[in-house]
UniProtKB/TrEMBL annotation:
Classification via InterPro entries: AAA_dom, Bact_polysacc_biosynth/exp, P-loop_NTPase, Wzc-like_C
Pfam family, one: AAA_31
UniProt record similarity statement: Belongs to the CpsD/CapB family.
Keyword Nuclease: no
Catalytic activity line of the entry: L-tyrosyl-[protein] + ATP = O-phospho-L-tyrosyl-[protein] + ADP + H(+)
Protein name, entry field: non-specific protein-tyrosine kinase
UniProt keyword list: ATP-binding, Coiled coil, Kinase, Membrane, Nucleotide-binding, Transferase, Transmembrane, Transmembrane helix, Tyrosine-protein kinase
Record keyword Manganese present: no
Top-level taxon of the source organism: Bacteria
Sections of the chain in a coiled coil: 256-311
Provenance organism: Micavibrio aeruginosavorus
Length: 650
């Protein structure tokens, strides 16, 4: 059965507020007049706008850029940036510019009396230009109430744009030519000044044209260095001789060799005479004098040679000093010439660069002159616009359907919002003013009211159940009590079970009858298997004794039974009254859990058969107008003034 499936999957806890389709439908039906008024207020002006809105016809032309970049070249970077052609993306701005639109409007309406400025604003408001992705194509589109005018305007705008591009490129070429002419004049003057500066510097620096002064200096430095080599060698020899006082160094001189030979002979004669004649012999004395004379001559000649070599060394040193001084002067001249040549090269390089730039400008000037007469736009019409055969945009019939759909949707949303924004019943006085019922208790909000009732735990919830019973028992008769609610999910079944468990706990014999034929839930709440019950008894299928079950907690249960096989008008028969009359003597209290009052007529029928009627109202959920409707139904049928319980109070 469907109820078993709901139990297995874990139905939502009774009492949780939610807005389902049935509830939403009920709200819309109850407030259908408000929804009709809201929908009408939306649809009437919308329909009027659509009917009065004129049909627009869209014409489309395509432009293609053959070469998006400028064909005039880039001569000086930042100097020429004013003459660069914009990219395709920036051309969209040019196509939608007021200046170009004004030209188009004037061209299309030539000879007509027309406010060009107003027409230009109107033309731009319905003109679009878009670039196709990854292409050089721009799509131009224009809408007008006249299909012919739509085609004429978009084609004329494309032609005007191409013409303006040609004029712009021609003007760019002329401006560029004028700029180049100015640059050529300035460069010529600059070259003349630089050439004069080169010549003047050559003259001031003593640089001879056609000759390399540096090479001459370097040659002289080389010659002087070569001359220094033998002089330095001679200087070294002479210095070495002058530093040695030995006579052996003069042995190479012939005169010295001759004098040494004479001294040797004189020594030999003196030795021989002395040996033969004695020391005082005149011949010995003569021989001594001869030898002394030869030694004196030798010393005299050595002194002469030394003086001669010293004079030669002085001469060599003088020559070396002169050559080294000359070499130093030449080195200074070479350094000066290098600096002058470096500076001269810089002057000549500047002059050469200016001449090269001048040649480039002159060449480009000739090219620009030819482009001035042959200036062509780099944009052409890829496909002109044709006259549109039908109006653009959404058809009016489709707009009407969409308006009706959205009007109803918005009307329903506003209607439901009005319902939901009504916070509903807040206090017992709110419910009492709407129901005109007797208030018997306010159940606090509890996370597990069933457990509190099963365990007979002392709590605020169970204290309030006790007060409810005491309020009911004060009436003349409270044997049979019907417990219901305006709508599902307000806690009527939980409240019934809690009251039954309390009464059972104080020794009362209690029977709970599940008379909720729309969605019975009692079996699931008390954890017993679903079986035959009220439906089978009322239809005459089974006797009553076989249908009443005793729960393990002590109270008795009469299930709802199989509702699928029960007749639709099962509650309207006399067997229901017979059932209540038969059971009343057997039990202290009979608690009948019925379907919600607004869901079907079961509660209305049963309310006329029982002693007491109790309505469970969930705080903040029910609206006053809903409770007023419930009150009208129950007060007409109930034997006594019904009572109500405010559920889920803080």
């Amino acid at each position: 059965m469907e109820r078993r499936k709901e139990d297995r999957n874990g139905r939502r806890q009774e009492g949780t507020p939610f807005l389902d389709i049935a509830l939403a439908t009920g709200i819309l039906w109850r407030r259908r007049f408000i929804m009709i008024i809201i929908t009408g207020l939306i649809l009437i002006p919308s329909f009027a706008y659509v009917l009065m809105k004129p049909d627009f016809y869209a014409s489309t032309a395509s432009l293609i850029f053959e070469n998006p970049q400028s064909g005039l070249g880039d001569l000086q970077g930042a100097s020429l940036k004013a003459f660069d052609d914009p990219s395709i993306s920036s051309q969209l701005g040019a196509l939608l510019s007021s200046q170009l639109a004004r030209r188009t409007v004037a061209a299309v309406n030539e000879g007509k009396e027309l406010n060009v400025e107003e027409k230009t604003v109107d033309f731009l408001s319905r003109l679009t230009a878009e670039k196709k992705p990854k292409t050089n194509v721009i799509v131009l589109s224009y809408e007008d109430t006249d299909p012919v005018a739509s085609m004429e305007y978009v084609n004329k705008h494309a032609q005007t744009y191409i013409q303006s591009m040609q004029e712009s490129r021609r003007q760019q070429a002329q401006d560029l030519n004028a700029w180049i002419s100015d640059q050529v004049s300035v460069l010529k003057q600059d070259i003349q000044k630089k050439s004069e500066a080169v010549q003047k510097y050559k003259a001031d620096a003593g640089i001879i044209s056609g000759k390399d002064s540096g090479d001459l200096i370097y040659q002289q430095i080389s010659d002087v260095s070569k001359q220094l080599v033998p002089i330095e060698s001679l200087k070294a020899n002479l210095s070495a001789k002058s530093s040695t006082a030995s006579t052996d160094q003069f042995s190479s001189f012939p005169i010295i060799q001759s004098l040494k030979a004479q001294i040797s002979l004189a020594q030999q004669d003196l030795t021989a005479v002395s040996a033969n004649l004695g020391k005082n012999h005149p011949d010995v004395i003569t021989a001594k004098r001869r030898m002394e004379q030869a030694n004196a001559d030798l010393q005299r000649e050595i002194v002469k040679i030394q003086k001669s070599e010293k004079a030669e060394l002085d001469t060599v040193l003088m020559q070396e000093s002169i050559l080294r001084k000359r070499l130093a002067e030449l080195n200074v001249q070479a350094g000066s010439i290098r600096q002058k040549e470096t500076f001269l090269q810089s002057l000549e390089s500047e002059e050469l660069a200016s001449r090269s730039l001048l040649e480039n400008f002159l060449k480009r000037q000739e090219e620009i002159k030819s482009q001035i007469s042959l200036a062509q736009s780099n944009v052409r019409i890829l496909s002109p616009a044709d006259m549109p055969a039908s109006a653009s945009g959404v058809q009016k019939s489709a707009l009407f359907i969409a308006l009706i759909f959205f009007g109803l949707l918005i009307g329903a949303a506003i209607t439901i919002a009005l319902e939901l924004f009504d916070r509903g019943i807040e206090t017992p006085d709110d419910a009492r003013s709407a129901l005109k019922f007797r208030f018997i208790g306010a159940l606090p909000n509890s996370h597990a009211p069933e457990l509190e009732a099963i365990n007979h735990r002392k709590s605020l919830y169970m204290d309030e159940i006790k007060r409810i019973y005491l309020s009911l028992s004060k009436r003349n008769s409270a044997k049979s009590i019907m417990i219901s609610s305006a709508q599902e999910g307000e806690g009527k079944t939980i409240s019934t079970l809690s009251l039954a468990r309390y009464l059972n706990g104080i020794g009362q014999k209690i029977l709970i009858v599940d008379a909720d034929t729309s969605s019975p839930s009692l079996a699931g709440k008390v954890c017993i298997h679903e079986g035959s019950g009220l439906a089978e008894y009322l239809s005459g299928e089974e006797p009553l004794d076989n249908l009443i079950q005793k729960h393990k907690d002590g109270f008795f249960i009469l299930q709802a039974g199989n509702q699928n096989t029960a007749p639709v008008n099962i509650m309207s028969g006399k067997r229901l009254q017979t059932l209540i009359d038969e059971l009343t003597p057997q039990f202290d209290h009979i608690l009948i859990d019925t379907a919600p009052v607004l869901k079907n007529s079961d509660a209305e029928i049963i309310s006329s058969l029982v002693d007491q009627v109790v309505l469970v109202v969930e705080k903040k959920r029910e609206k006053k107008h809903t409770l007023k409707k419930v009150s009208e139904i129950l007060r007409q049928q109930a034997k006594d003034v019904p009572s109500f319980i405010l559920n889920k109070c803080a």
